[in-house]
Amino acid sequence: MIIDSHAHYAHKRFEGEFPYLNDQNGSYTIERADREALFAQMYNKGIIGTIEPSIGFDQIENQLSLSSETPIRIWQAVGVHPTRCIDTPWKNRTKVSAYAEACSPVAIGETGLDFHHSREKQRRLRQYLWFVHHLRLADRLQLPLVLHIRKADRYALPILKRYRSRLHGGVVHCFSGDPATAEAYISLGFALGIGAKLLCRDEQANDLCETVKRVPLCALLAETDAPYVLPEREDVSCDSKKQYEKLRNSSLILPAVIRKIAELRGEAYETVEHAVYENTVRVFRLQI
Fold first, then answer.
1. Cβ distance 55 to 11 under 8 Å?
2. Residues spanned by the domain of 269
3. Which terminus of the chain has fewer Cβ atoms in its 10 Å neighbourhood, N or C?
4. Do 288 and 273 touch, CB atoms closer than 8 A?
5. Peptide bond into 263 cis (omega under 30)
6. Facing residues of 148 across strands?
7. Residues 161-191 pLDDT 10s
8. What CATH number is attached to the domain comprising 146?
9. Counting beta carbons within 10 angstroms of the beta carbon of residue 144, is it exposed (0 to 12), middle (13 to 18) or buried (19 or more)?
10. Would you call 65 exposed, middle or buried from its count of C-beta atoms within 10 A (0-12, 13-18, 19+)?
């Protein structure tokens, strides 16, 4: 069994019929369906559920309504994404807290710091304020965190260390760093979310491969960030760049991620699949 530890199926890109990526015994295929059919296909492939973190504040209600529509389990994480919080009125933090207290989420997030835009667009102070608000909310509710840290590890880690006694675990979503950075997060009680970045071949992917080899297996979760973070275009049978850009990633590629983890570690696929499933259940304290 597999649980996608991070996906966004409430996203508008999963409305109506859409093209999505599937893994068929090591080869990627492009298929078309609506969300209900995709969920049925996931279930039949042994993907029994996903963690659905919030992105924008204005999408939380739509996100929460998704849980009642699916053949798979969808567990909620509530928060405001770092790149969305900069345009979210600060007064709405109380509404985010109210959502979290009302819907019994399994985590708070996604939250953190994202500095990949130009400095003038980052609005770092607003990101810091929302990050700390999420940290305190997670502590009050005794919940793990879904962290989104992009080009900001050197800033996020000191904040997390300052709140060490108030942390309740969680995951560093879409982790792509080196072993030293990984160990810093693991020492604070976080697992690492490993997705399609591991299937790429750039320098950052090389660092990630080394990390996956060296960290304990109990620190790894599998994720997709669907509809985002596709494998490299060259590995997907696309007729054009435009077709590739229209593709939705899906949880159906998780077996490819798990195979790569197993290959790098020299372990059996079944061993890794079982471990990342158990890790996900433990980190999010899921009731299966």
1. yes
2. 2-284
3. C
4. no
5. no
6. 112
7. 999 999 999 999 999 999 999 999 999 999 9
8. 3.20.20.140
9. buried
10. exposed
